[in-house]
Design goal:
The complex is a heterodimer. Chain A is of the alpha+beta class. Chain A is built from 4 helices and 6 strands; from the N terminus they run αβββααβαββ. Chain A has helices at 4-23, 64-74, 85-107, 124-130, and strands spanning 27-33, 44-50, 56-62, 120-121, 138-144, 147-153. In chain B, helix 1 packs across helix 5 and helix 2 (38-47) packs parallel to helix 3. A 5-stranded parallel beta sheet of chain B has the order 2-1-3-4-5, sandwiched between helices. Chain B has one domain (4-120): Response regulator (Rossmann fold, 3-Layer(aba) Sandwich), CATH 3.40.50.2300. Classes of the chains: A alpha+beta, B alpha/beta.
């Protein structure tokens, strides 16, 4: 099982690879949070599990405006009117899945099968609880261009 | 090019993106069928023939590996080319997916460049070009 520092390094790389890959967005900063962050409202959160050998639960929480911006970068030809809240939430699930794929590719030895759980959308009232640091749960804030994004690893 | 393409992914957003990229890489005239998992895909294949399947692996109800094993067990569907688009791609999984019978494996995030490479490596008969 990878140790904590390996997991966080892997997460930083996975977030960078994903956002640079989809939207040419750069991660400008990454920091651990000691307290749960104050959310602005309207954030979208998704969690999924990475079974052994990674053995992690991963959560990603991002603002809707950031998600819409990323979606438009990925699919510029899609009519804005077709992009409903459901599509945006679904897209954040895809992003979470992609980050998890990068995370697994870094953490799981190449000769081992890598599996990823299905992404689950969090209810808005679950977000604060999910972003509360505990002995087992580290919360990180990434600054991606002008947007903040939160991740947890449990 | 491909007359009818089946996109199998539980994410509506992913299907929209893949469809748009396929149109960009030359499949503008193709008809697209979209379904959310392997079980729905097998149902769709009973109704209509397709020339290309683009499928995710990690899906509820019936995932990509089970879906492809059904395809490859059927003489009717055996030759349909399959492109796998998955976030769970490392060297070992890529080889495993190819062993299932996939013609091309793409790691997420998918891009028009990667889909172009995949599509242009196939011809309409399902054989690698």
């Amino acid at each position: 099982m990878p140790d904590s520092s390996m997991k966080f390094e892997a997460l930083e790389k996975a977030i960078s690879n994903t956002f640079e890959g989809i939207a040419f967005s750069q991660v400008l900063d990454c920091s651990f949070l000691a307290l749960e962050p104050e959310l602005k409202g309207g954030e979208i959160g998704v969690c999924l599990s990475l079974p052994d050998p990674a053995n992690l639960k991963f959560t990603l929480v991002m603002g809707k405006a950031h998600a819409v911006e990323c979606f438009q970068a990925v699919a510029p030809g899609i009519d804005l009117e077709k992009i409903s809240d459901y599509i945006i939430a679904d897209f954040v699930k895809e992003l979470t899945n992609t980050v998890a794929g990068h995370l697994n590719a870094i953490l799981v030895p190449h000769n081992e099968d890598m599996t990823i759980g299905l992404p689950v959308l969090l209810e808005s009232d679950e977000l604060s609880r999910e972003l509360k640091p505990t002995a087992k749960r580290e919360v990180l804030r990434f600054q991606i261009e002008e947007h903040g994004l939160f991740c947890t690893l449990t | 090019m491909f007359k009818r393409i089946l996109i199998v992914d539980d994410s509506v957003a992913a299907r929209m993106i893949i469809k748009q990229y396929l149109e960009i890489v030359g499949c503008r005239e193709s008809e697209f069928l979209e379904v959310g998992d392997g079980r729905e895909a097998l149902g769709a294949l009973k109704e209509k023939s397709v020339d290309l399947i683009v499928t995710d692996m990690n899906m509820p109800n019936m995932g990509g590996s089970e879906f492809i094993s059904h395809l490859k067990a059927s003489p009717k569907f055996l030759k349909i080319p399959v492109i796998i688009v998955s976030s769970a791609v490392n060297e070992d999984n890529r080889a495993r997916f190819m062993n299932f019978g996939a013609n091309f494996v793409i790691g997420k995030p998918v891009s028009p460049q990667l889909l172009y490479k995949a599509v242009s490596s196939l011809d309409v008969e399902g054989q690698e070009a």
